[in-house]
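Final report, Chapter 2: Outcomes

The project's central promise was a pipeline that accepts a single protein chain and returns its three-dimensional structure in a standardized token representation, suitable for archiving and comparison. That pipeline is now operational. To close this chapter, we reproduce one record exactly as it appears in the project archive, with the input sequence first and the structure output second.
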Amino acid sequence: MASRMQMIGFAGVISALLAVSKKFTFGAPTVYVAVLVLLLAVLWLRGFNRAIQRIGRHLRTLEARINALAAQAWGTPEALLTWETGTQNARMQVRGVPGQVGRLGGWYVP
């Protein structure tokens, strides 16, 4: 999670490149460098989010296995562990622009 602070650094680089550019035209290389840095930052963040989702998928599998074993051992249908499954279900309920941005960014994946 601490490495997400690098995103602030990327934004700073982009801002600095645009700030030192005396002319803001599409012929200036700083515009293309800024767009490239921004694209790389978005792809990095998407990959980071997808890695978190892979961990979440594994946790949901563990929750299901533990809940099944607990139901078998104690004979209760009530689930012991529900946090990760509930959190993912709440993420998947997000609609509209935030949901689309989240899905594009790799945060809302099944």
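Archive annotation: The CA atoms of residues 21 and 30 lie 7 Å apart.
This record, like all others produced under the grant, will remain available to the consortium after the project formally closes.
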